[in-house]
Amino acid sequence: MTVINCPMGINRPLLIDSATLTNRLTTEDLPAAYLDLLAEKNGGYLQNMWLPTPEPTSDGLDYGLIHYIFGLHHDPETSILHQQRHDFPDYFVIFSANEQQLFAFDYANQDVQNQPAIRHLDIETDNWQIVAPNFQRFLEMLQPYQLTIPLEGKLTRHETNHAFLLVDDADFLEELWLHVEDWEDKEWLLGWLEHFTKHPKLAYRRVTLAALEVQLLYFRLSFPSSGVDLLNRFLADEDEGLRKQAEALITELAEV
């Protein structure tokens, strides 16, 4: 599947009525390959994120990364209808954004089938480069990539969600928990903790319980009170060690 199933995502109905995108473009102008993708899943994080580029980007010397594809629906945060910017030409339609890095359909450059080229717009470096002749070729060019935790600064929200969705190593998951433990949005963090309490691999559940313990003991004033309920998952865990650890944590919390 091109788009990953997100445990906290909502697959909203695809909007079929014509709607305005820019002064000169409507949803009827959107590429067929993009609409086919949305018919499969109406927006979300991509399985492959690494894209070769002819020029450097903020991600690398010869590549860029794409995370979330906007859907076609009415949610203002994740719909392509609500992402267009007046400081860009009206022949650009932004379909993905990660802070200062954007991807857009470029209707000033179309192929022989009148499908728009794909532009990578790096606001930080002021570099606007064509990276694919059309959206279908763009999807074909994408390759797997493992995000890494930066030594300085923080991953963006999109990068972090993407990393959680693609995590394939318990050690990396532990690094992610450490990376986000002081983030202010504890409801968001609670959602990911809940997701990994159900992971089939013991090593993943073990580092998740450790991360939950940090939140309950050291961030209890800002962490949702419902977070304590996640301990019930571990009390019923098939692993005796996790059950005992959860019991000890409940006892410790009662004494705080």
TrEMBL record:
Q: Which residues form the Knr4/Smi1-like domain?
A: 29-140
Q: What SUPFAM superfamilies does the database record attribute to this sequence? A: SMI1/KNR4-like
The record's listing under InterPro entries reads:
Knr4/Smi1-like_dom, Knr4/Smi1-like_sf
Listed name of the protein: SMI1/KNR4 family protein
Q: What is the lineage of its organism?
A: Bacteria, Bacillati, Bacillota, Bacilli, Lactobacillales
